[in-house]
Amino acid sequence: MCHEKVPQNIPELNVEEPVLFYHSQSFYSQKVLLVLYEKNINFLAYEVNVAAGEQYTPWFLDLNPKGEVPVLKIGSLVVPESAQIINYVERNFQQEPHRRLLPRDLMPQQEKKILRLSNLISKLPIGTISMGSFIHADFSPNPKPPFIAPVRRALVTSDRVMSNQLKCYAKDNPIYAEVLLRKSDFYARKRDIICKRDDYVKLLGRLEEILEEIENELRSHGNADWWLCSSHFTLADCCLGILLYRLYALGLEDYLWGKRPHIGAYFARLYARESFLRAIPSRISTLRTMWNKTPANYKLGVGLLSASSVIAAVLAMRK
Ligand SMILES: N[C@@H](CCC(=O)N[C@@H](CS)C(=O)NCC(=O)O)C(=O)O
User: TM segments (predicted)?
Assistant: First the structure.
């Protein structure tokens, strides 16, 4: 078996309200969380133990055969994929106390711009950008927790074995074998792009083109107190806010918006928004991720180092 120590049956959640299966460090989960908070939707959050492979248990694969978070479940309705979840909630939760992320009073060209920019941002291969930044670390000199060196190394290692691991999950779950094997191929191809520096530079170039367009858009508002495309915080802001947060956590902010002051100011403004603060991972969850992802020998080293510092301090005090 590939997985252990995780619930082998769907958790009994006898609730009427929507349930979001998510992971606090997952980019796509954070985007959905931001949308749900912005729209003032009550929901129950179930954190899937991705590190232990809970997403490949049969009960989770029944929800999403790709073995990915986020998934939204409302009664018997199951909606996988962040884009589908966002579409679903935007269409179905529009009346008070909810609010639209595409407000009614937008001009047609504004709505078009919001949809276009949201779409551009959503198409970015964020997993490849993240993993590539761990390998070509000179682009991201200042990574934030949880992306400290031992965690980055552990993530690169688990990404490297993922393609084979997925073949193993496919064997364990023959009904979902086809989709899992397709995902295994995807991981093998992604690995090629991540490792080749030229390909990674091209990917960052594409990201920069989008950020340049966003910088120009923000600049065009002058001093108006606008978000990306409107005075309202819209769908485009949910996509952009979480993208910027991920790039910042990876340590790419100087490289990407050091020379784009409007994006820098926009990013700082997000921290005054309650929904954004709720959607990004708490310190506790970041510490938990760091602990789970840090190899045991490194923890032992840090433990020994701390113990020896304490002993040295005690000895010094006795002198
Ligand atoms: N296209 C999916 C991507 C979701 C995705 O990649 N989720 C990642 C976390 S950010 C995941 O569940 N990874 C676990 C795995 O693949 O084993 C979406 O938009 O929801």
Answer: none
